[in-house]
Amino acid sequence: MAEKMALAKAINESLRRALDTDPKVVVMGEDVGKLGGVFRVTDGLQKDFGESRVIDTPLAESGIVGTAIGLALRGYRPVVEIQFDGFVFPAYDQIVTQLAKMHARSLGKVKMPVVIRIPYGGGIGAVEHHSESPEALFAHVAGLKVVSPSNSSDAYWMMQQAIQSDDPVIYFEPKRRYWDKGEVDFDAIPGPLHKAQVVREGTDVTLAAYGPMVKLCQEVAAAAAEEGRSLEVLDLRSVSPLDFDSIQASVEKTRRLVVVHEAPVFFGSGAEIAARITERCFYHLEAPVLRVGGYHAPYPPARLEEEYLPDLDRVLDAVDRALAY
C-alpha cells in the first residue's frame, strides 16, 4: 500500500508505527506532546499513545539525552527530538562522551538503541542556531551512526531502521524539505540503512549529496541536460558510515565528482569523500574532486541566507570547472 505524503508526515507515520508495534519505544523532547513539535512532526502521537510514551520534557537538552541513555540501559528504545540543530550542543557532551562510547566501554555488553532526531539546515528564513548543519561533528565520533533522508520514502523507512538499530543513530531531518511530498510504500522491503542510491543516471559528472541538497542536485542535473550534459545524482543517505563503494562505482563511470552539502566546505564531510575517492579512483579521475557548500562563517541573518547556501548556479559552476579539466 503506497500513499503520497509530506516528508514530515512520513516521519510521523514511522514514529506511530514504532510506538504501536514496540511498547519499549518512547518519544521525548521539548513540545513533542501537546504541541506536536514546532514542525508538527509528532502531531497527534501523545493523544493516541499517552503522556508516558510521548513525553514533553523540560528545556534541557543534556538532561533529555542523559535520560534517554538511562532508558536505553533499562531496555527502552527512546527517540529524542532536539528542537533545532543549534540546540544540540548543550547535549553534545552526553552524546559523544557517554552515548557513543557505552558499547565499546562495556566490551559490547551494553546496547544503546537511542535515536536523536535533529531538524537541520537552512532555507526557512530562521535566525541563528536554527539553520546550522553540524553533521560532520557527529560523523567524526566513533560509535555514532549519522543519517539524513532526502525524500518521504526514506524518511519513513530510515526512521524504522534507526529505531530498530542497537547503536545510537543521529537522524538529521532536512527541515526545508518537510513539506515536499513523495510516495511511501508501507509494504516495501527497505534496502540497507547506509547504502547510497543513484536517483538519476548520468555519464559526465557525479553529483553526490544527502538530505536537503539531493533535490537541488536533481534540479542541477535537469538544467545541465538542457545543455547536453549528463549528470548522475547520488543520494548518499548516510554520512557515517559512508557508502564509498557506491561513490566509487559512480565515479569510475563518470570520472568526475562534485560533492554538495549545506555545511561549510572547510573540514566538512565532502573533504573526507574527496580524500577517499582520490585514493580509490586516482587513475579514473579526469578532474579533482570539487566541493560546494556553505562558507566558513557563522550562519547569516535570514535576508542573506540565500547568498550563503549552495544554489543551482554555484553547483553548475562546479560542474563547468570539473568538465573544463
Automatic annotation (TrEMBL):
InterPro entries linked to this entry: THDP-binding, Transketo_C/PFOR_II, Transketolase-like_Pyr-bd, Transketolase_C
GO MF annotation: an example: branched-chain 2-oxo acid dehydrogenase activity
Any Gene Ontology biological process: branched-chain amino acid catabolic process
Cofactor(s) recorded in Swiss-Prot or TrEMBL: thiamine diphosphate
Name assigned to this protein: 3-methyl-2-oxobutanoate dehydrogenase (2-methylpropanoyl-transferring)
UniProt keyword annotation of Oxidoreductase present: yes
UniProt-listed Pfam families: Transket_pyr (PF02779), Transketolase_C (PF02780)
Class of this enzyme: oxidoreductase
Assigned keywords, A-Z: Oxidoreductase
Positions of the Transketolase-like pyrimidine-binding domain: 5-180
